[in-house]
Amino acid sequence: MAKQNKRKAIVFFSLIGSLSVTTTLLLALAPAPLTPGAAATLFNANTVQSPLADMGSVYRTDRPIVAGAWTDIIVRRDRGISTDGPSLADHFVIGNGINGGADGEIRIAARWMSQTPASSIRGAGSDRCISICVAGDVGGVTILQNQRLEQLLASLKQQLGINADRVQVSTQPPTIAAIPAR
Question: Which of 93, 177, 99 shows the shortest CA–CA distance to 130?
Answer without folding.
Answer: 93
